[in-house]
C-alpha cells in the first residue's frame, strides 16, 4: 500500500513539513516518507525529475499548463501555485501538504468509510425492526446526511483549518520533539485529543456563538446512525483553537490520526439498539451516555460531553446516567428539513438578539455566554426555564408521497456522487468552477429539504435546478445519451426530471387558471 510511484509532496515523518524533495513514499502504518532527491523541485537528473519536469521545469506539458491556469498566474512552478492557492508563500509546499493531508485526506477517509456506514445503517434497521422500534424516517435521514455533506464542502475551497494551524504552531513553537514511533507518544496523543475534544464539545454547548454551530448536530428528533452524520458546517472554524496546546509537543501526524479516530468512534454510539455495557459505562462513551447527551429532557441538558472516554465528564461534574426515556432534539425544535437553514438558524437568532439588546456588555454576553442566558440570569441560564417534554412526543413531520421521497433520494445520491468526483478531481477545475459547483450543491440540498417541507414553490425550484444542470452540460459540451457513461446517465436523469416538473407545473397552472375563470 505504499505510494512508490506517486508524485506528491515530500513529508517529514515527524513534522509533516516539506524538506528538500517533493516526492513522498508513504508507509501506510508509520505515515513516514522516504526522501528522494530531485523529483518535482530537484535538479532534473534522475527519472523522477524527468517525469515531473513538466510541473517544475519548462511548463511544456499539460499538467504544467493546467497548474498555471488554476493558479491564475500562468507560471508553472510549484511554489507559485502554492502561493496562490494556500496563502503568502512561506513554507509553500508545507502549506500545500496541509491541504493534501487535511481536506483531501478527509475525503479519502469518508469514501473508505461509506461502505461500513451503509452496512451498519442497514444492520441497525434490521435490529430496530426486530425490536419493534421506529425505523429511521426518510426525511430525517436526508436532513442528517445533507448536513454532513454541507460540513465537507469547505474542503473544496479551503485547507483543513485544524491541521494547517496545528502544523504552523508545531513548526514554530514546539519545545519538545516526541518520537513519532513511540507507543507513549501515541498514547499521549490519544489522551490529548480526547481531553481537548471534551472542552471543544462543552464550550460548543456553553458558549452561544459555538452553539450556533453545534446545534445542527442536535436538531434531529430521531436518534439513529444517520444522526451521527449530522455535522456542523460552522463549528470547525472555531474548534481548532482548543487543539493548539498539543502542537507544542505532539507531532501533527499523530494528532491527525487521533482526531479522525475520535470522530469515527462516535458513529456507533448514535443508536437506540444497544443498551448499557456494564463496567465500560464508567470508562468509555457509550450509546446510553450519548443518548442522554442528545436528550432535551431537563435532566439531560449539558451532560456527557466526552468523545471516546467518559472519564472527563466524571472528573469535571458533567456526567449523567440514562434514567427516564430520552426525548431527542432541541429544546425549541426547528420545524424544517431545509439543511442550510438548519445550519444557520441559530446564528441568525444571535445576530437578531445582539441587534435588539442594549448595552455593549449585554451584547457580548449574548455571544459568549450560554444559549439560555438573559440579563439578570446565570451564565448558562436557569434550569427552571427549560420546558418539560410533552407526552406523547409530537415530532415534526410533513407527509409526502413515497414517489416524491424516492425522487429526492435518487437525486440526492447523484449529488453525493458528484461531490465525491469533484473532490477527487479538484485539481482539474478552476476555482470559479468549484465555487459554482458548491453553490449548486447547496441549492440542491435546500430544494430537497423544502420539498420534504411541502413548500409551495419547491417544484419551481426543482425545475430551475434541473434546467440549470442541463444548460451547464450543454455549455461544456459534455457527453449525453449517445455515449454510455456516468455523465450521460446523469444527463438523462436530469432531462427526464425537467420534463416531469415542467409538465406538473403546467398542469397545475391550467387548473389554477381554470379555477379563476370559473
> How helical, in percent, are the residues?
55-70%
Distance between the termini: 73 Å
Shape label: globular
Mean pLDDT across all amino acids: 80
The stretches of 5 or more residues where confidence is low (pLDDT under 50) are: 1-102
Q: What is the alpha-carbon Rg in Å?
A: 25 Å
Q: Domain count, please report it.
A: 3
N-to-C SSE series?
HHHHHHHHHHHHHHHHHHH
Strand content: under 5%
Query: How many distinct helices?
Result: 19
Summarize the structure.
By secondary structure, the protein is mainly alpha-helical.
Would you give an account of this structure?
- This protein is an all-alpha fold and 518 residues long.
- The chain folds into three domains: 1-91, no CATH class; 103-316, no CATH class; 402-517, no CATH class.
- Helices cover 55% and strands 0% of the residues.
- It has helices at residues 47-56, 62-71, 78-86, 92-101, 103-131, 138-152, 161-173, 183-206, 208-218, 236-239, 252-265, 287-293, 311-316, 339-356, 360-368, 402-424, 431-452, 458-476, 486-517.
- The protein is globular.
- Residues 1-102 have low confidence and may be disordered.
Write the layout of secondary structure elements.
Layout: H1 47-56, H2 62-71, H3 78-86, H4 92-101, H5 103-131, H6 138-152, H7 161-173, H8 183-206, H9 208-218, H10 236-239, H11 252-265, H12 287-293, H13 311-316, H14 339-356, H15 360-368, H16 402-424, H17 431-452, H18 458-476, H19 486-517
Helix pairs in contact: 2-3, 3-4, 4-5, 6-14, 6-16, 6-17, 8-9, 8-11, 9-14, 14-15, 16-17, 17-18, 18-19
Amino acid at each position: 500500500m505504499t505510494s512508490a510511484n506517486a508524485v506528491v509532496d515530500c513529508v517529514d515523518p515527524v513534522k509533516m513539513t516539506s524538506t528538500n524533495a517533493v516526492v513522498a513514499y508513504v508507509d501506510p502504518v508509520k505515515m513516514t516518507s522516504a526522501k528522494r532527491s530531485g523529483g518535482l523541485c530537484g535538479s532534473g537528473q534522475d527519472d523522477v525529475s524527468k517525469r515531473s519536469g513538466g510541473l517544475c521545469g519548462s511548463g511544456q506539458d499539460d499538467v504544467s499548463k493546467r497548474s498555471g491556469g488554476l493558479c491564475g498566474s500562468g507560471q508553472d512552478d510549484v511554489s507559485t501555485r502554492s502561493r496562490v492557492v494556500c496563502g503568502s508563500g512561506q513554507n509553500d509546499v508545507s502549506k500545500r501538504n496541509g491541504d493534501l493531508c487535511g481536506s483531501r485526506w478527509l475525503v479519502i477517509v469518508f469514501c473508505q468509510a461509506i461502505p461500513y456506514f451503509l452496512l451498519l445503517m442497514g444492520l441497525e434497521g434490521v435490529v430496530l425492526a426486530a425490536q419493534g422500534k421506529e425505523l429511521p424516517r426518510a426525511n430525517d435521514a436526508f436532513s442528517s446526511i445533507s448536513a454532513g455533506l454541507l460540513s465537507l464542502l469547505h474542503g473544496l475551497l479551503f485547507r483543513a483549518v485544524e491541521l494547517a494551524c496545528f502544523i504552523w504552531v508545531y513548526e514554530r513553537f514546539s519545545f519538545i520533539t516526541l518520537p513519532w514511533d513511540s507507543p507513549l507518544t501515541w498514547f499521549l496523543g490519544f489522551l490529548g485529543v480526547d481531553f481537548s475534544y471534551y472542552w471543544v464539545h462543552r464550550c460548543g454547548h456553553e458558549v452561544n456563538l459555538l452553539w450556533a454551530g453545534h446545534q445542527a448536530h442536535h436538531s434531529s428528533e430521531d436518534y439513529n446512525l444517520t444522526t451521527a452524520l449530522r455535522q456542523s458546517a460552522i463549528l470547525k472554524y472555531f474548534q481548532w483553537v482548543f487543539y493548539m496546546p498539543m502542537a507544542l509537543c505532539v507531532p501533527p501526524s499523530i494528532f491527525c490520526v487521533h482526531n479522525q479516530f475520535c470522530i469515527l468512534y462516535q458513529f456507533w454510539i448514535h443508536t437506540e439498539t444497544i443498551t448499557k455495557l456494564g463496567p465500560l459505562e464508567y470508562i468509555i462513551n457509550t450509546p446510553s451516555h450519548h443518548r442522554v447527551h442528545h436528550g432535551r429532557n431537563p435532566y439531560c441538558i449539558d451532560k456527557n460531553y466526552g468523545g471516546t472516554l467518559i472519564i472527563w465528564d466524571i472528573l469535571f461534574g458533567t456526567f449523567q446516567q440514562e434514567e427516564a426515556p430520552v426525548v431527542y432534539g432541541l429544546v425549541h425544535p426547528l420545524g424544517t428539513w431545509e439543511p442550510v437553514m438548519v445550519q444557520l438558524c441559530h446564528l441568525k437568532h444571535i445576530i437578531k438578539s445582539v441587534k435588539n439588546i442594549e448595552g455593549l456588555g449585554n451584547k457580548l454576553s449574548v455571544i459568549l455566554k450560554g444559549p439560555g442566558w438573559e440579563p439578570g440570569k446565570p451564565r448558562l441560564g436557569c434550569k427552571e426555564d427549560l420546558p418539560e417534554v410533552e407526552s406523547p412526543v409530537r415530532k415534526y413531520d410533513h407527509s409526502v408521497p413515497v414517489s416524491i421521497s424516492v425522487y429526492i433520494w435518487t437525486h440526492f445520491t447523484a449529488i453525493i456522487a458528484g461531490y465525491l468526483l469533484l473532490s477527487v478531481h479538484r485539481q482539474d477545475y478552476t476555482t470559479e468552477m468549484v465555487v459554482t459547483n458548491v453553490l449548486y450543491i447547496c441549492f440542491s440540498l435546500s430544494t430537497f429539504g423544502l420539498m420534504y417541507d411541502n413548500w409551495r414553490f419547491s417544484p419551481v425550484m426543482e425545475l430551475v435546478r434541473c434546467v440549470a444542470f442541463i444548460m451547464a452540460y450543454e455549455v461544456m459540451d459534455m457527453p449525453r445519451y449517445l455515449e454510455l457513461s456516468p455523465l450521460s446517465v446523469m444527463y438523462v436523469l436530469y432531462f427526464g426530471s425537467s420534463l416531469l416538473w415542467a409538465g406538473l407545473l403546467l398542469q397545475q397552472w391550467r387548473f389554477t387558471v381554470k379555477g379563476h375563470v370559473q
